[in-house]
TrEMBL record:
Name of this protein: Gfo/Idh/MocA family oxidoreductase
Keyword line: NAD, Oxidoreductase
GFO/IDH/MocA-like oxidoreductase domain segment(s): 143-290
Residues annotated as domain Gfo/Idh/MocA-like oxidoreductase N-terminal: 8-134
Organism of derivation: Labedella phragmitis
Coiled coil start-end: none
UniProt GO molecular function: nucleotide binding; oxidoreductase activity
Keyword NAD belongs to the record: yes
């Protein structure tokens, strides 16, 4: 058996997503025994002492630090996972690129297209591979959807619908964390959720060239957080001081694809009812398909006039057989991140871009930026093209 390359991993921020990354690196050993590399969890950075203790004791990192610069500078760290809040993404990613260290970064990659461009160009200039957390594209049902579209099985694609509805900010008592502040998060639900939808649409159908959009803030004031450690689901005091929500709760877009197809997208972080209704529908002259993350092991396909049939993901659908033996046994969210981790590690070893790239994230950010411009003046806005390696197959 060929000797596996050992890749030293550094993690910046040991929150929920940082822990998902760490688990995913370990799961690659289990689900991809033929992978060319094994991840070694070297160093984790977090300002929280509890998080650093968890990184060492539960996740198995060899050492921890309260300064992310230590992770970048560590000679045993070969690659970096960047799971910080949005406002730190550019600084950490550009530093990793300057050190020649490939990075896996969560989305939105930057606080808008300008920061995203800086990150992507820094990676390209450094000649490093990257990975971005567009995990929904790795669902085996989505992989099959892309095959059906790109093979022509659905005919000429006419229209697309993408809807990402969530309730994580539906409670008006939710604390005014960094996610609601433009200077720290950038956009609101456009970057947080609809960037996933933009990537799904471009990954399956092709490049989006033009958008028109509207946005709205439904909850305009929120209670200030009780502590600096307040997180995504923290509640504030109903009688305490409040602050202004600065970015959008809801966005709706009309889009035009380079192929001539058209589409509609919408996203909400304050929808009462759906927890994570992330839906993709693609319609063509010969058929259509539907997928929803809430039932992400299923794909609805209409390839005749008889309507939809539900097909369970199984062997032959993307990476399904790496995780389960047959149809009907479901995969989970963390499995998608494991697929992402192995694509990143393979990209590093093989020196070619296999995982969703920083340029893919920049492309999604340009859609967000165009949507924000359109929401300001009510016009159709062109979506700027990006350079650098992408993995959408355009």
């Amino acid at each position: 058996m060929p000797t596996k390359q050992h890749i030293g991993v550094g993690l910046v921020s040991v929150g929920w997503m940082g822990r998902v990354h760490a688990r995913a690196y370990g799961a690659v050993r289990v689900h991809y025994p033929d992978a060319p590399a094994v991840a070694r969890l070297v160093s984790a950075a977090d300002v929280s002492e509890d998080a650093r203790t968890y990184a060492a004791d539960a996740l198995g990192f060899e050492r921890t630090t309260d300064d992310w610069h230590d992770v970048i500078a560590d000679p045993d760290v070969d690659v970096v996972s960047i799971c910080t809040p949005n406002f730190l993404h550019r600084e950490v990613a550009v530093a990793a690129a300057a050190a020649g260290k490939p990075f896996w970064i969560e989305k939105p990659m930057g606080r808008g297209s300008a920061e995203s461009a800086d990150i992507a160009r820094a990676a390209t200039a450094a000649g490093i591979v990257t990975s971005v957390g567009f995990n929904y594209r790795h669902a085996p049902a989505v992989a099959r959807a892309r095959e059906l579209v790109r093979s022509g099985a659905l005919g000429r694609i006419t229209n697309v619908r993408v809807s990402l509805l969530a309730d994580y900010s539906a409670d008006p008592r939710g604390a005014l964390t960094w996610r609601f502040q433009t200077g720290l998060a950038g956009s609101g639900v456009l970057g947080d959720l609809l960037s996933h939808g933009a990537d799904l649409a471009q990954y399956t159908v092709g490049r989006i060239e033009e958008v028109t959009a509207m946005t709205e803030r439904f909850i305009r004031e929120r209670p200030l957080p009780a502590s600096s450690s307040a997180g995504h689901f923290s509640l504030g005091s109903e009688s305490g001081p409040t602050g202004t929500v600065e970015n959008e709760d809801y966005a709706a877009l009309l889009v035009r694809f380079a192929s001539g197809a058209v589409g509609v997208m919408d996203s909400s972080r304050v929808a009462v009812g759906p927890h994570a209704e992330y839906a993709l529908e693609i319609y063509g002259t010969l058929g259509s398909l539907r997928w929803d993350f809430q039932r992400f092991n299923e794909l609805q396909i209409a390839d005749s006039r008889d309507g939809y049939r539900t097909v369970m993901a199984g062997p032959g659908f993307g990476e399904f057989s790496r995780f389960q033996p047959g149809q009907g046994t479901s995969m989970g969210f963390d499995d998608l991140k494991t697929i992402e981790a192995q694509l990143f590690l393979r990209s590093v070893v093989e020196g070619r871009q296999l995982a969703p790239s920083a340029s893919d994230a920049w492309s999604a950010a340009e859609i967000v930026t165009a949507a924000l411009r359109s929401a300001e003046d009510g016009t159709w806005q062109p979506v700027a093209a990006v350079d650098g390696p992408t993995t959408t197959g355009e």
